[in-house]
Amino acid sequence: MNEARQGIQGIGMTSARTRDRLVQRLVEQGIRSPAVLERIRNVPRHLFVDEALASRAYEDTALPIGLGQTISQPYIVAKMTEALLENFHGETVLEIGTGCGYQTMVLSPLVKKIYSVERLPELLRKTRQRLRDLDIYNVQFRPGDGWEGWPKYGPYDGIIVTAAAPEIPEKLLQQLAPGGRLIIPVGPTGKQELLLVTNMQDHFTQSSLGAVCFVPLVQG
Q1: Are the C-beta atoms of residues 81 and 36 closer than 8 Å to each other?
Q2: 101 vs 17, 70, 124, 169, 192, CA distance in Å?
Q3: Which residue out of 15, 33, 72, 207 is catalytically annotated?
Q4: Considering the entire predicted model, what is its pTM?
Q5: Which strand ranges, in their side-by-side order, compose the sheet holding 92-96?
């Protein structure tokens, strides 16, 4: 049995009861989508963090995953996924910042196809294998600069960015389909806002989903 399949259900602090408590906290914080809540309950977050941190996997907090990166707080993952998929009628999503793959796995059964870009090849190799071990097959990966997006498969019905940019990258706006939604944290450390940007065909609208704290979206 491969590593990802071992302990997928979890015991002790990674058990179903612990996951249920996390989901209840998310409901209390305003997450309403049954599909998103069910994904948060079922995705084995303890397999996306170092074994030493597994007992903290179902706390509602960000945790380090190495290489200066973090696995996002479950509430933020749920909030971003819920905002992206509200009235979503498309098929394709571009993810900028694959990271450890937790956001990717939460989203994967809720859309037809995900195209995911990660700047750090070492992190991407591990994540690609982890998601394959967990039977996630509708994701295509590419190492690259998230500021550039992935023009080859655009335009995308949704774009989700898991690192903070000082401003919205123009090339991501260019790859957003009419009616599509872009979820992105914007601003300097300590003053970041999670923005929802919608392509209205002849213009873009944007609204704030609240204050957040993400690692920076590095160019190059």
Answers
A1: yes
A2: 23, 11, 9, 22, 22
A3: 72
A4: 0.92
A5: 139-143, 113-118, 92-96, 156-161, 176-186, 192-199, 204-212
Tokens 């694959």 correspond to: 98
Domain residue extents for the chain: 62-212
Q: Is 116 a catalytic residue?
A: no
Cα R_g (the chain), whole angstroms: 16
For the CA atoms of 17, 18, 23, 29, the dihedral, rounded to the nearest 10 degrees, stands at 130
pLDDT tens for the 220 residues of the chain, in order: 344 444 555 545 567 889 999 999 999 999 999 999 999 999 999 999 988 898 999 999 999 998 888 999 999 999 999 999 998 989 999 999 999 999 999 999 999 999 999 999 999 999 999 999 999 999 999 999 999 999 999 999 999 999 999 999 999 999 999 999 999 999 998 899 999 999 999 999 999 999 999 999 998 7
How many Cβ atoms from other residues are within 10 Å of residue 43's Cβ? 24
Q: What angle do CA 152, 158, 59 make, to 5 degrees?
A: 120
Topology at the third CATH level for domain 62-212: Rossmann fold (3.40.50)
Question: Are 123 and 63 a contacting pair, CB within 8 Å?
Answer: no
Q: Six-digit token pair at 162?
A: 């898991």
Q: CA–CA distance from 7 to each of 1, 85, 109 (Å)?
A: 10, 30, 21
Q: DSSP characters for 60-94? A: SS-EEEETTEEEPPHHHHHHHHHHHHTT---SEEE
